[in-house]
Amino acid sequence: MVDPAKPPLEEAIRLEAVYKAFVPRGSQGFRGRTAQPLLALEDVGFAARPGEFISLVGPSGCGKSTILNLLAGLTQPSAGRVVHHGRPVSGVNTEVGYITQDDNLLPWRSMLRNVEYGLELRRVPKDERRRRAREFIELVGLAGFENHYPHELSGGMRKRAGIVRTLAYDSDVVLMDEPFGPLDAQTRVILQDELLKLWELRRPTVLFVTHDLVEAIALSDRIITFTCRPGRIKRDYEVGLPRPRDVFHIHDLPQFRELYDALWDDIRMEIAAT
Amino acid sequence: MSQQVLDDVRRRGARHRRTRRAIVWAGRIGLAAGAVVAWELASGTLVRPFFVSSPSAVAERLAEWFGSADFWFHARFTLTSTALGFLIGAALGVLLAWPLALRRVAYRIVEPYFLIAYSVPAVALGPVFILWFGIGLAPKIVLAAYFVFFVVFINTVEGIRQVPQGLIDVTRVMGGDRWATMRSVLLPGALPYVLAALRVTLPAAMIGAVVGEFIASNRGIGYLTRAAAGRYQTAGVIAGTIVLAAIVLLLSMSLRPLSRVLRWRPEIRLRGDDAL
Amino acid sequence: MTIPDAREATRNAAAEVLGRAAERSKAAAAGERRLVRTGIVLLGAALLLLWEFGAPLVVQPRYVSSPSEVASRLVELVLDGQLWGHIGVTLGEAGAGYLIGIAVGLVAALVLVAVPALDEIAGPFLAAFYSIPKIALAPMFIMWFGLGLLPKILLAALMVFLIVLANTMAGVRGIEPGLVEVARVMGARGAGLVRTIILPGAAPAVVASIRLTFSRAMVGAILGEFIAATQGLGFLIVRSSRQFETATVFAGIVVVAALVMLVNALIRAVEARALPWSSERPHG
User: How near does any CA of chain A get to the CA of C19, in Å?
Assistant: First the structure.
């Protein structure tokens, strides 16, 4: 058992026996009838070391995104504790970076001003934030598109902008919710490669939600699989592949196959169970 | 080779479009000219001029009006009540929308009353305003403002509410407080709705003012038109109607560039814009 | 602690969490509902009281009347039978104009859809006609068609016609081209295509416009009555306002609003029956 009063220093984040129930939206309040709450998470507990890249994998609707929302403080656990840097998360946690499933770029801002947005909200002086933003824009090859509006960018470009917007303000924990979901397979791999390179610069702790097993193996140090609703931790895998990684040829490594099969077994059983 | 094919297709397409456009425009101009000529010829032969007057008589009346100070006095009256009503109605609509759109309970409390007020045809309130404010400028301003207020209010609320929650969440996680959320997310997000509502309600304000003049007035273009009808001066009625229609068209076109101010081109579905 | 024990503990904890969540959300929903309901009642009562007792302090009572006066006037009008005549006339004008406007609008839309060249030539004229205020035509109609029912019916029809026309055209244009192609591939053509794809596909937009336009027909009829009439609710309102019978003016407005809401509810009920699959719920 962990002593909550004295958290080990070697932890960036920790979930302790977290339960989360929620009332489905939209079905609420019709003629005063209230929908039954659903259990999204059941007894979820794990911790991430600083600099660890962890993927959360499981069937749709098993509460993986809920874990990110809990860490971001956008929602509170029904039971259990969510801890960031030894302090329980209460209220919106502005110390994490959150890259949501939708890119959530402000449609009325140019790409450059979108990338600056986080720095602006953190009151970074204008020159400084412009310099930082341009640096990151350069890194992901978006230079030349600074004055384009989101609707003028391709899906991949929007994703890149969304990612560097969050990375530009340099938080030590980054939450990513299926950031590459709607992209085509080729763009995905390219972005995975870029993400790893960006990550290597500062090595923040990353919680990465995905459906894609190959993506999870290619990127992570650890992979946690989840059961279907209610979401419980099924297994916790160490990936153990050497870094830096070559995402384009990750399939060729002998360990890949073994891990992939194990993960696929987990997921298949969960999907079959629903 | 491929360049040649492309050029060929482009040239042929352009030629085809040109001829087609020429035919369409010829049809349009022919239709309009034919209608005017038929009107002129039919008047006095097929139909009694009392019913339809004639294009020349209407043109004569218009020329006469444009030359008289009297007409411009009436025009100024109508435009003044339109402008003031528009400003008051729009300001109230925008300002009242903010506190209500952001508080769900307050909005749910007020909503049924707004729905009731909205389903009272604004026209029906004309006599009340005239009863309260006399037959001068004030009741026309109030009526114009009433025509504007609901559309602006409803669409501002809609504009605030349709801002995706994700944008708000992301802003908060990145360290934005209430004020930052308001300024950086809600205001720009709702802006296109407000602008679109303003655009459609400017002509609505004018219609409100004219309805007021129809009901009771001794000034304004609406009054001119109605007075002409009362004296069975067909040319005057038609001329007045044309002037009113032209002003409304001008007003609705004048604010069209407003939506082009925004480079990010959002798609909007305006509510209640066909209320007139 | 053995493994079954741990399972048991987890399950109990989960049940407790769920129970608490259900309770809390129910309490929150009930609390909000209570708040909203009392709010609505209190606000309504406050408005009525303000009108009844507050307004006379600020404005001359005879200009604002009061809820009690309006109510008693309404009862009087119902009892002496006057009201029914006015309602009949206005509803008749609005209803006739409404039906004529819908029919003409539908036919015109079908013609324009069938003959695209006509649509292209007439387009700008229709657009211009669409944006000029139909209300402005009221004096002309009165002059042409006299004081009877006809000018009001035509005005009401005109208010409806263009909306139905524009919505029907938009509905036909909004049909997914894929749907038409699939039907073509399966062998539908001509009248069959119109009956199986075009009409049902455009129906939601058409029905939406039909639902939204009754209040416009009422506006047309009432405005016509304002300008010149000897009967009808608009006439009742405007005559009473000239005679400073404020209570009657408000009674008339209440009746107009009630009629509009009643007919709208009726149309919505019919629509729900006729087109149960329609998910189109336009605002307005």
Answer: 8
B111 CB neighbour count, 10 Å cutoff:
14
Question: Across the beta sheet with A53-57, what order do the strands follow?
Answer: A96-99, A173-177, A205-210, A53-57, A222-226, A233-238
Using alpha carbons only, give the angle C256, C259, C260 rounded to the nearest 5 degrees.
85
| Of C64 and B78, the one with more pLDDT | B78
Q: Which residue of A has its CA nearest to B164?
A: A104
Query: Residue C15 is which amino acid?
Result: A
- Position with higher pLDDT, A125 vs B18: A125
Q: Which residue of B has its CA nearest to C127?
A: B249
Nearest to B175 among A100, A107, A121 (CB): A121
| pLDDT per position as a tens digit, C243-278 | 888 889 899 999 998 898 888 888 888 877 776 655
Is residue A220 a contact partner of residue A188, using CB atoms and an 8 Å limit? no
Nearest CA in chain C to B241: C136
Give the model's pLDDT for residue C282.
39
Peptide bond preceding A230 in cis form (omega within 30 of 0) = yes
Tell me whether residue C276 is exposed, middle or buried, using C-beta atoms within 10 angstroms of its C-beta: 0 to 12, 13 to 18, 19 or more: exposed
Instruction: Check pLDDT > 60 for residue A2.
Output: no
Q: Which residues of chain B from 157 to 176 reach within 8 Å of chain A, CB to CB?
A: 164, 166-167, 169-176
Write out chain A residues lying below 8 Å of C33, CB-based: 29, 32
Average pLDDT, stretch A60-75? 88
ipTM of the complex: 0.85
Measured distance CA(B90)–CA(B202) in Å, rounded? 9
Which pTM was predicted? 0.82
Among candidates B105, B210, B234 on the partner chain, residue whose Cβ is nearest the Cβ of C32? B105
Query: Among A94, A102, A107, whose Cβ lies nearest the Cβ of B174?
Result: A94
